[in-house]
Write a structure and sequence with these properties.
Structural class: mainly alpha
Order of helices and strands: HHHHHHHH
Helix content: 55-70%
Number of helices: 8
Shape: globular
């Protein structure tokens, strides 16, 4: 089950959205759709460092079978503190929100994990993985009716994103981008 959550949150790194409108890059819009979005570039570089360090601690706490329970809890507490600090530095840092939600889930605080995921979804309602996570978290609270609604929303958003990705699959545009990037 722990691996499921790790994979779930790792999927948030995959996105096919067109972010070229936010960036003044003169390159064809079709070639910039896969560039990292704002969720990966917080306004404060220290927030990114805190998030990355917390993610390492969290992953180790979840995946390392040699850790005893107290060490695991200590690592999750450190990750929790780092992620909260990252969000103080940049309250709209969506990747830190997602990672903190995962820490809450590991600490068995499903309500807080769900609350944070909805906060994330307010900023990025087109994140299918977020709606899926909201469904899983809601299901964990025993509310299968609302969980189903979130799963359906996830499928709807994902299908919409999939259709959009077909517009950005022209290899010549990618080659043009690489040639102009260097």
């Amino acid at each position: 089950m722990k691996y499921f959550y790790f994979i779930l949150f790792a999927l948030t790194a995959i996105s096919c959205k067109d972010h070229s409108a936010k960036n003044n890059n003169p390159v064809n819009k079709k070639t910039t759709a896969w560039l990292p979005s704002a969720e990966y570039t917080p306004s404060n570089p220290l927030a990114a460092k805190l998030n990355d360090s917390a993610a390492v601690l969290q992953i180790r706490a979840v995946q390392d079978p040699t850790l005893d329970e107290s060490t695991r809890e200590e690592m999750l507490d450190m990750a929790f503190q780092m992620l909260n600090e990252a969000l103080k530095l940049d309250p709209k840092y969506r990747l830190a929100m997602t990672n903190l939600s995962a820490v809450y889930l590991e600490k068995r605080d499903t309500a807080k994990a769900l609350e944070l995921m909805f906060r994330r979804l307010e900023l990025d309602p087109e994140m299918a993985e977020g709606w899926q996570a909201a469904g899983v978290f809601t299901d964990m609270t025993g509310d299968s009716v609302n969980a189903k609604k979130y799963y359906e929303k996830s499928i709807e958003v994902f299908n919409s994103r999939r259709k959009m990705c077909k517009e950005y699959s022209v290899p010549e545009d990618l080659l043009y981008y690489y040639d102009n990037w260097s």
